[in-house]
Design goal:
The structure is a single chain. The chain is α/β, with parallel strands linked by helices. It has helices at residues 11-20, 102-115, 139-152, 166-172, 186-194, 209-221, 247-256, 265-269, 275-284, 311-327, and strands spanning 2-5, 24-28, 31-35, 51-55, 75-76, 82-83, 89-95, 119-121, 155-160, 175-178, 199-202, 227-231, 261-263, 289-293, 331-332. The strands form 3 sheets. It has an 8-stranded parallel barrel, surrounded by 7 helices. Strands 2-3-1-4 form a 4-stranded antiparallel β-sheet, with helices on one face. Strands 5-6 form a two-stranded antiparallel sheet. The longest helix is centred in the C-terminal third of the chain and has 17 residues, at 311-327. It is globular, with a radius of gyration of 20 Å. It starts with a strand and ends with a strand. It binds phosphoenolpyruvate and manganese (II) ion (MN).
Length: 333
């Protein structure tokens, strides 16, 4: 249950009530709210004088629910870049799977600048399936991304692999990406909850949408309101594609949650040939953003080589999104 306390309830009293009701205490628009377990369905009489509004829930999707906030939350990536809310914006994010060298990430940054793409992606810490493959450049990669921000005025998204370097990512990135394999990492979730930077939470490939949104609740209930969901494909019985992009799940998320949603067709299909069509389908769904992997020379990429688009393919795809955006009343930013 979410309880909006009366405006005159001070911090001390809010914390006291929060402790009694086993609730998270958050401050929003000048007043306190308590987020208690959804098992609490009715409020005892003695609490009522402190409460302006109480919202019961069927399950623990609470802060992310449309029952709490009817629309989609606006998340500001910078002063000039916002998604969700009433913006109708779809932010295109592109760049390689991993930062590999200054030259490689510089070429990706130049592609963004040329096309007007404002957010550059690349992993510096890679959560790989095998210990014998490229694990990322670490903090050196983050420094290169930082340089790209300064040189080209781009915003940066990069992924946190484990809680040992979460503060580095928070410091260097404009959006903190929590990867599919880390969706359940509570050290990461809780560290991101204490930050204010936007967090892109990817859906674990073996998780339900309920579990996915509950992971988002860890970040929201800790006080970070800037959470973006990312559907990147789930594991099914299919083996011809790497994963299966769950667009039905996306429809559910749009209907029931107040969080902006970014779609990642690259990791879903796993093969470059299918990325353009899939991206156009995602655009047609009216998502808040698209995350597409590109590489100056995909054949030699150190991770996810088979799914990255070369720059010519990406440019063609990017142009083809414009009429789709126009047809559904969205702005590509
Ligand atoms: C990535 O974005 O490069 C990545 C590793 O994604 P995911 O966590 O979805 O596998
Ligand atoms: Mn990748």
């Amino acid at each position: 249950m979410i309880l909006r306390l009366n405006k005159n309830v001070d911090e001390k009293k809010a914390n006291e009530l929060g402790a009694e009701l086993r609730s998270f205490v958050l401050k929003q628009n000048g007043s306190y709210i308590l987020v208690s377990p959804s098992k609490l369905k009715e409020l005892e009489e003695r609490y009522r004088p402190f409460v302006a509004e109480s919202i019961p829930f069927n399950d623990d999707i609470q802060l992310a629910s449309k029952k709490f906030i009817a629309g989609t939350r606006q998340v500001n990536i910078s002063d000039a870049i916002a998604i969700g809310g009433t913006t109708n914006n779809t932010v295109v994010i592109t760049g390689p799977c991993s930062v590999e060298s200054e030259e490689q990430i510089g070429q990706a940054a130049q592609l963004c600048t040329k096309l007007g793409v404002k957010v550059l992606r690349a992993g510096a810490y890679k959560p790989r399936t095998s210990p014998y493959t490229f694990q990322g450049m670490g903090v050196e990669g983050l420094k290169l991304l930082d340089r790209m921000r300064d040189k080209y005025g781009l915003k940066i998204i990069s992924e946190v692999r484990d809680s040992t370097h979460v503060n580095e990512i928070i410091r260097y990135a404009d959006i903190v990406q929590i990867g599919a394999k880390s969706m359940y990492d509570h050290g990461i979730l809780k560290a991101c909850a204490k930050a204010t930077k936007p967090v892109l939470l990817k859906r674990g490939f073996g998780t339900t949408v309920q579990e996915f949104v509950q992971a988002a609740e860890f970040i929201l209930s800790g006080g970070n309101e800037n959470v973006i969901l990312c559907e990147r494909g789930i594991r099914t019985f299919e083996t011809k594609t790497r994963f299966t992009l769950d667009l039905c799940g996306v429809a559910w998320l749009k209907e029931h949650t107040n969080l902006p949603i970014i779609l990642d067709p690259s990791h879903a299909i796993g093969y470059a040939y299918g990325v353009p069509d899939l991206t156009r389908a995602c655009m047609a769904m009216g998502c808040d953003g698209l995350l597409i992997e590109t590489h100056p020379n995909p054949a030699v990429a150190k991770s996810d080589a088979s799914q990255q688009l070369n720059f010519e393919e990406f440019t063609k795809l990017y142009e083809s999104l414009k009429p789709i955006a126009k047809a559904i009343g969205r702005n590509i930013i």
